[in-house]
Amino acid sequence: MRQRPDAVRLPEEAVGRLSRQRLIEIGVALVLTLAALLFVALTVWAAEPGAIGIADAWARPTIGQGRTTAAYMTIMNRSGEDDLLKSARAAAAKSVELHQTSMTADGVMQMREVEDGLPIAVGETLKLEPGGTHLMIMGLSDSLAAGAELALTLEFDKAGAIDIAVPVSASGPDGVGADHSHH
Ligand SMILES: [Cu+2]
After folding, report:
1. 75 C-alpha vs ligand 1 centroid, how far in Å?
2. What's domain 51-167's superfamily in CATH?
3. What are the residues facing 171 on neighbouring strands?
4. Local confidence pLDDT in tens for the 183 residues of the chain
5. CA torsion through residues 134, 149, 50, 74, sign
6. Does residue 172 contact residue 101 with C-beta atoms inside 8 Å?
7. Is residue 183 a contact partner of residue 136, using CB atoms and an 8 Å limit?
């Protein structure tokens, strides 16, 4: 027996209604998922003020009775505006200075304090590394041994204060600075 076109269309419409309903359900599920993702994203964003990223931080162990050391790290400015690392401090130290190492004309390594802070433009990465710019940590209340952690606070012009825990290690995460000849 030949089916009339009408008889064929009816079940199709039923299927059509079903899938529309399913589409709405999927749509609602998607919206809820997106809302959840957005919430997570906003939470992460809030935990990273100004979206300044800090990676590969490390500080040298102190030597003997010395209570001075240097800390290094990579700072990425993923925020939407230029920023400036103004200063740093540590509860365990009397002072933390921003230092720049340079070579004099006669080949002597010198460190000088960076008075006006370290600018980091949008999208730029600032590397604090042995032989270059570093944080000089002075007047530590105790020695720092490899394996310990040093709590530091970085003060940015726009992003404000960012607390980091700096692992104490004889060399950086990628093995840099293992020799002790300079800061
Ligand atoms: Cu220094």
Report:
1. 18
2. PCu(A)C copper chaperone (2.60.40.1890)
3. none
4. 555 555 455 555 555 566 777 777 777 777 777 777 666 555 554 445 458 999 999 999 999 999 999 999 999 999 989 999 999 999 999 999 999 998 888 989 899 999 999 999 999 999 999 999 999 999 999 999 999 999 999 999 999 999 999 999 999 887 767 655 455
5. positive
6. no
7. yes
Distance in Å, CA 156 to ligand 1 centroid: 20
User: How close is the Cα of 86 to the center of ligand 1, in Å?
Assistant: 16
Structure token digits, residue 34:
């997106």
In the reported structure, the alpha carbon of residue 178 is separated from the centroid of ligand 1 by a whole-number distance in angstroms of: 16
Give pLDDT, residue 29: 79
Ligand 1 centroid – CA 44 distance (Å) = 33
In three-state secondary structure terms, 72 is strand
Residues with CB under 5 A from ligand 1 (ion): 99, 111, 136, 183
| Residue for token pair 């931080």 | 57
Q: How far is the CA of 23 from the centre of ligand 1 (A)?
A: 63
